[in-house]
């Protein structure tokens, strides 16, 4: 995971104030967050073996975020501590469960280049997961290392930022929400947006909240996966939970696929996976069956997260998801 770590400062309130207006909120909470940290925690809770690459500040929030990652079993050798404040996210959650977020990058902005240790972690990993809360230079470098090493790349374009023209075409799987997908492709129709995002390489998933998600491969939409109906309490981090759970499940499936191939044709096991992925280089394979299974798993994980408050605080364990799917 190459991504951001923020402390979320969350206020629950009945509505958004008008400019110049003061209103009362119901309550306030400090919750570890950041799209990178959230996705890392979501993947770890689903049984994924996760490295976190990024930066926190030399302050109490940084100490707390690092401790949380360690407590979740996530390796933090690639997490730098830099001078200045840890990233923060200023989040309003309305009674409807909807949220709006303002991020102040802090230490995340210091991740402009990767060090040799961070590059080595990416090169050795099966999957690299990226979002847009780090400087674009780090994302570009991370993607280049992953592609050169056959690491399968998963990218969430959140928040949407200007990217080099070739960036998206180098990603194996794009997971975007409806707004992000439309901003990137100009397509308001989610299926067409997914087709456009996957046209040049690999896969795309466009998430649609309580309507589910559409998935496309190689420019062709494969269909709509329905959401699991729940009563929302707080949608913060639901998209991150989806991505983390999805990747953990894909990783679990790909290990099985490589092991199975290895039993028959050990020397070519990784090549078998690359051929199946259709991505022209990733070591691990992602079949249509594996993607559908992972989407089902991720949909349940995200549905659980919206029934509870907070980003990391709301994420389910593997056992919880398995119990629902049993
Ligand atoms: O996706 C939710 C996350 O966005 C929050 O945890 C916040 O930190 C922002 O990065």
Walkthrough of the structure:
This protein is α/β, with parallel strands linked by helices and 326 residues long. It has one domain: Ribokinase (UDP-N-acetylmuramoyl-L-alanine:D-glutamate ligase). Helices cover 39% and strands 20% of the residues. It is built from 10 helices and 12 strands. A 6-stranded mixed β-sheet has the order 7-8-9-10-11-12, with helices on both faces. A 4-stranded mixed β-sheet has the order 2-1-5-6. Strands 3-4 form a two-stranded parallel ribbon. Helix 1 packs across helix 7, helix 3 crosses helix 4 and helix 7 runs antiparallel to helix 9. The longest helix is centred in the C-terminal third of the chain and has 28 residues. About 7% of the residues have low confidence. The site of alpha-D-ribofuranose has 16 residues, from strand 1, helix 1, strand 6 and helix 7.
Number of domains: 1
CATH class: Alpha Beta
Small-molecule binders = alpha-D-ribofuranose
CATH homologous superfamily label:
Ribokinase
Question: What are the low-pLDDT stretches, counting only 5+ consecutive residues below 50?
Answer: 258-280
Instruction: Report helical residue fraction.
Output: 25-40%
